[in-house]
Amino acid sequence: MATRDKIYYTEGLPVPETPDLGTQPAFWKKTDLVGKPIPRVDAYERVSGTAVYPSDILLPNMIYAAILRCPHPHARVKKIDIAEAGKMPGVRAVITGDSKEAKGVKWKYRDMEVPLFDSHCRFEGEVVAAVAADSWYQARDAAQAIKVDYEVLPFVVDYERSLDVSVPRVQEKGNLLSEDTYSRGDVEKGFAEADIVLEQTYHTQCELHTPLELHGCVANWDGDRLTVWESSQGVFAVQSRVAEALNLPLSKVRASGHYMGGGFGSKLWPGKYTVISAMLARKAARPVKMLLSREETYLCAGNRPAGTMRIKAGVRKDGTITAIDFDCIGPSGAYPAGGVQLVDWLARDLYLCANVRTRGRDVLINAGPARPFRAPGHPQGAWALEQMIDELAKAIDMDPVQLRLKNVPLKSQAREGTPPYTSTGLRQCLEKGAEKFDWQASLERIRKFNEQNNHLRRGIGMGACLWVAGGGGPPSTVVIKLFRDGSINLNMGASDIGTGTKTIMAQVAAEELGVQPAIIQIENADTATTQYATPSGGSKTVPTEAPTVRNAAIALKQELLAAAAEDMEVPEDELEYIGDEIIWSRDAAKRLRITEVSRLKKRGVMIGTGYRGPNPADKVVNPFAAHFCELEVNILSGEINIIRFLGVHDSGRVMNRMTFDNQVYGGIVMGIGFGLTESRQLDERQTGRLCNKNWHDYKLPTAMDVPLEITSLPIELDDPESNNTGAKGLGEPVTIPTAAAIANALCMATGVRFTRAPVSPMEVVRKLSERKEG
Amino acid sequence: MLPKFSYIRPDKLDQAVAQIQAGNAAIHAGGTDLLGCLRERIIKSEKIVSISGLEKLRGVRETVEGGLRIGALTTITGMAEDPLVRKKYPGLAMAASEVASPQLRNQGTLGGNLCQKPRCWYYRGEFHCLRKGGNQCYAIEGENQFHAIFGHDNICVITHPSDTAPVLSALGAKVQVIGPGGGRNIAVADLHVPPRDDVRAETVLDQGEIITHVDIPPPPAGLYTSYRKVRARRSWDFALAGAALALVMDGDRVVRASIVFSGAAPVPWRSREAEQALAGNTLSDDTIDKVCRAATAGAKPLRENRYKVPMFRGMLEEELRKARLQEKA
Ligand SMILES: Cc1cc2nc3c(=O)[nH]c(=O)nc-3n(C[C@H](O)[C@H](O)[C@H](O)COP(=O)(O)OP(=O)(O)OC[C@H]3O[C@@H](n4cnc5c(N)ncnc54)[C@H](O)[C@@H]3O)c2cc1C
Ligand code: SF4
Asked: CB-hemisphere CA count at 13 Å for A473?
């Protein structure tokens, strides 16, 4: 049982299981290294530029690839003419759907299989042809020189209209991809029991992935063996998808990506570009580098789908939430991609509520398919739910923090059998957060401020969350090698996607083995030299890999103890491993440094293998959080100035305070982008094409949009049941309630509910003038 | 990708003029706009003449009359930080410091800022629109939240992107131009071309003409200048609604008013209605209210940019209140 829940990061991936380790090692009561704010083990490489990212790979004779993409949201390729492109300087290979090497090569959008070069293009940016040439520029120019005859087809890009009868079909079966429903209790009864019932519709926009390193890879053949260096969150996912597409045994595909420059979910899997690079490399008999342009990634490398969420909720005067009815619709894009995936999860599970009903409709539109985006579904769901909770609190005249405190769940109500959480830190997040933020006094201060009645109004707001995953789980296998000089190699399949995974693993291994983290060298994310791991996503890398690393270290210690017992001629069970020495418990004078163990000296190396044990049966491991925000709005111009943010997180044990705080800061910045500035704009009423495909038109928040004051407050609860390190996931909850907290603060500042994200100055002015007129 | 072009960097003005005249050459100053335009095939030139070596066109000097002469190659940062600019026309320094991002301000020049191409996303994207020689404006029926509410005549609805032009226009500045036919000067207020005159041109400059300097007349006694820009994020973004004010005050009375908007129209938009409502009056609540109403009375908003009407009003109200406070202080 890999995971109780089917989580997106393993979806569609064959997930091998590792053996049950049996008994787990005891929970650490005190730690020397784990939890300390140790700078990243690879900080120097990253900062100095010596770290080799896939984008940096340069091989002898390497050439460059470019893809020609469909410029229409919906079209059929009638004819492709590559004659001119093929003759252009430097061109070494051209592949189109007509090429013999493309025949029979398939690609899977989730479970929907299509030809890799599909003449039926269902979104702008779909692959039409590919070129490899001696230089980057030659490849791009040659791709442009390919002549394509398109039959332009009618399209739909507005998801709210995709189910209308008259709109064109994206796929033959129609535009409703799936409809999921969930229900517990009786919502109608719940509404009848409520003192107040409120209903509101919320909208969130489509957000585009913008990792700093572009999507892409270098592909190189050595005989029948393919090596791919890919900017990826999971090299084993690259290996299996490429092997499947090219019909190769896994052993013949090596995927590697030691460093990578951000993915946020969009690099959990490889892309068509990966397979195409391999095909071009084979055809040209050269290593091929392909990096998509930013414009291309905006078209085809994923997004957080937009959503419309209608929520109706009932509450009693005492703060009992009697019913929640949640309905959402959102687009996967042109292919199945989880258009409403997990959007309703918080409505189902965040607060105590006996009667809940949800419905999610995933629809198709002629636009690039979604990919998981940091906490899929959750920031959207929080946008609706957390604003509704504030409205309910206002309606019953209760403080919004208090209303949430009244409804903290200790069990997961939405899972079968209502299993308890190993820990629910939500109460502490709310209480300690309100205290640290000075919530009560701030309310007073701000009321006074706003009484001056000038054009600047202040507000504070908060939002809470849990994250559906974040407990980690099998499979994972880690090998620790001890060399005869006492130095250590930690061999792990998982990627460090920039979160500090490697640093934390070094701390865990060092803690257990009594050595300094600096002598541990980490080799990771290479399918040829490391063990299988699932992609780094779902906030599960630390809770998956850290316990495995610990198990590997313990296995190594056991090997050492057995070997030392021979050397010391005492029974093994009378030996103890303390620091980096083995000591006889009956006489501490009898001791042996690990480097003196003769088996190690003779073999040169000793190995400990660790497996990820199972998660606790019938319990759920989820992280919890609350965000608090203070802001100022200029009601004349609509400008919003975020003054301060507090992120309070229960993610179990803090493994490294520096990397922990980094996640909180980064998540809040990303949440500010979601709440205030970022939004994909399609030319909905005319061409269906993407309007904003550069960094000026697609507005990421700048340093000026982010408050100077962001505070991270960890709630460190002992959670020995979660896993043998007690750590829960963090990387996604940090961005879930951010935008909702902003919206709640805006509501306090202006008295207006901003239901539509992002809240730009345009939206503020629009809503405020509506109020004036209305 | 960038098209092929030749690149020449003369160090004498007359050579530059001769080079630009020969062939369909484009002028390169800081290149911040030009390179993007070449990449997007908005400018199709096979020859680039860089004027960046013309040191004489760089820097700010005080004229004998007490005004300023700013070289076209002066960087935006150079203007924002120049003590004379800050002292005489604080509004111009404010505008310069609100342009783009620090990197772009360090590289971009005043001449380039006045001559930059519009930022309409259809125009910059792969849409063959009217301004590029096509037969349709995509923005009129399309996604036009960032487009114009004044002066577009439903032909082309771009907003003029420059932050410096509105202030210079309000100050009555003139650009000095040199070209194949010799020199001339043009009021900044007349430099830009409304779509009804020519939808394909942004400035009245002839092919081969170079802006060498911008001359700003001496500040009259009681001059108050300011620039305000509302945008969707706080750096690296163009104006949603902006205003340059140049008010000549006599005590608390406004003797003369120049009000020029950015983010409003295909050219820096002089609001004569607002100016008239203001001139001769004190900055009372009542006047401010009238001025703001007058400013947007003639607006022709599009489907997605109706918000600009209240935004311009609100922003102008705030600016006039600030001016009042300043005068009282
Ligand atoms: C992402 C981005 C954001 C921006 N944001 C803003 C903003 O918020 N506000 C704002 O005002 N501007 C903004 N800009 C525009 C920027 O200020 C201009 O690009 C810059 O000032 C141009 O100066 P340059 O020297 O680089 O011009 P170049 O790129 O060298 O030239 C621009 C154009 O002007 C012509 N030209 C240049 N100098 C002369 C001259 N002396 N005589 C005749 N023609 C000339 C060139 O031929 C070319 O067509 C932004 C630009 C970018 C790329
Ligand atoms: S507004 Fe002007 S530049 Fe934009 S699409 Fe219309 S014609 Fe082209």
From this structure: 24
